[in-house]
Amino acid sequence: MVDLSQLLTDLDEESAEVDALVADRPAVDWAEPTPAPGWSIAHQIAHLAWTDQVALMAATDVPAFYASLQHAATDPGGFVDRGANELLDEVMATAAPGGALDRAGAPAALLRRWRSGRAALATALAAVPAGNRLPWYGTQMSPASMATARIMETWAHGQDIADTLGLSRTPSRRLRHVAYLGVRTLGHSFAAHGRATPNVPVRVELRAPDGDEWVFGPADAANRVAGPALDFCLLVTQRRHRTDLALVATGQVADEWLDVAQAFAGPPGPGREPGSGRDAARSRRAGVQP
After folding, report:
1. Phi (first) and psi of residue 215, to 5 degrees
2. Domains of the chain and CATH, by start
3. pTM of the model
4. At what angle do helices 175-184 and 229-236 cross, to 10 degrees?
5. Structure confidence by residue, pLDDT tens digits, 64-95
């Protein structure tokens, strides 16, 4: 039985860690471009706030959520970006007339929006009756699955922010949720790239931040992936290119998986170019070509 209360605690802790990355930053830092093309740090936080808002709708107002799907269907490749942009514009217009991000009130207003939204979502997920599933894009999710997905996405966008600011984060046990989703989405990863879903198991053996081992899949599987849990999570969230990671694939299916892995729903992401991590972001901020 999945412990939803523990998942919600982990989601709160992950959110608080990302919150702390930006809470005391000057407004000019919020305008910094992140590794996601066209997205500033403000867009990253706006995206988290927007996704929490949509998830809250799925948990509390199913008809409204299904109505929102009609808008998503008109622009399946861009509605996520549009949602973040619209929320950011709304917050900025309220906090800083004229829309200038360097107005002192805009970052604080965006943070308040994200904080209130994620708190409301946690309360709503805890109140979903046992056995109920929530509608989502192309699927349905249990409250536990929704919380796990929010942990994964919060961690991933937090990585974008940390990379932009040239910061290192200490990996935590919460990475297990990200790794779990990365393993569970193996089939989706292939399908999203137009490839046949593998019909053979893959064994995943990861070194956890505390030195423990996280293992997924049967022990006798011929296809295997092994390496640090952090590297696996960076891969499946497409925050690093596989050539920059200490992951070892054994078997054709495992090797192909490392090229297409994505723990998030939707169409395939562009991924990252080799050498595009934290040090490269620091060089860009300093005006040096990495």
Report:
1. -125, 135
2. 4-144 (no CATH), 175-260 (3.30.1050)
3. 0.91
4. 50
5. 999 888 766 566 557 788 888 889 888 877 76
